[in-house]
Amino acid sequence: MFEQLLAAHERRILRVCYRLLGNLADAQDAAQEVFLKAYRNLGSLDGGRDPGAWLYRVAVNECRDRMRRVRPFAVADETMAGGSDPEADAGRQEQRRMVMAGLAQLPERERMAVVLRDLEGLETSEVAAMMGVTEETVRSQCSMGRAKLRQFVEARLRR
Amino acid sequence: MNEELDWLRQVTEVPDAAVAELHRRVVMRTRRRWWPWVAAAAVPLLWFVPRPAPVQNLVLHPAAPRAPELPRAAEGTRSRAETRYRAATARERTPEPAALIYMETNDPDVVLYLIPSDGGGE
Fold first, then answer.
1. CB pairs under 8 A between A and B
2. Per-residue model confidence as pLDDT tens for chain B (122 residues)
3. Which of B7, B21, B26 would you mutate first to test chain A, the one with the most A CBs within 10 A?
4. CA nearest A80 in B: which residue?
5. Torsion angle, alpha carbons of A122, A128, A131, A132, to 10
6. Does B96 lie at the interface with A, CB-CB under 8 angstroms?
7. Do B61 and B99 form a contact (C-beta atoms < 8 A)?
8. First to last CA, chain B
9. Which residues on neighbouring strands pair with residue B114, listed in sequence order?
10. Is the ipTM value over 0.85, yes or no?
11. 0.90 cut: is pTM over it?
12. What is the rounded distance in angstroms from the CA atom of residue A66 to the CA atom of residue A49?
């Protein structure tokens, strides 16, 4: 049961942690903590709740806690090779570093709004519920964050 | 707009190796450990293993005094001191009672005597 839950949701949970925390090491720690919480609460997860939504909420809360308690969004110089073309890999690394640096310069709330609504594709109402703000606030933070991110990336690309 | 978001999603995707590493770590942390169960089973088993008699029930004879070191002579010969020592100890040697160990058990009707193999007739 737990193995199936882990296999079904691990990529999505790790991805949202990575986008919210900015580096893979912190993202893996946070995602691991999320799944250990799920393991400890496996009994209550059986009761008709959507485990995916529950995991997602726990992951977002864990990342917010970590950003306040451990360290804020921190971009690490990680190498993520894996493709067969080293040149394309290097290009992707550079783009990823640039986007992560762009996300790092956003205020926390704007970054969360951009990540959860634009990158993760959640509904505005879901993001508003998770962040404890109104939908209007989410829309405005999202639009400001996206504009700043675009500006940052375009400036980097022009160099 | 959609292309821009697709590109952002693509470049912030996590690699397969990182997902596999997370999977391995979580499985390791949630694997059921066997040793607490073995320890829990071993405690009652050890409780019923027969124990030896308490130490205070054992009556042990003190160890025999050790012979003094003899002065060494050249190989194949016997020093004067050794000759004198051997003559003296041969005269003084008297039969000693055999050392034995007497041991009480938890049953008041049963006592154990451990008699060394050199006899003594006890």
1. 67
2. 688 889 889 988 998 999 999 999 999 888 877 777 888 888 888 887 777 666 666 666 666 666 666 666 666 777 777 788 878 877 766 655 555 677 777 877 887 777 666 655 44
3. B26
4. B15
5. -160
6. no
7. yes
8. 107
9. B101
10. no
11. no
12. 26
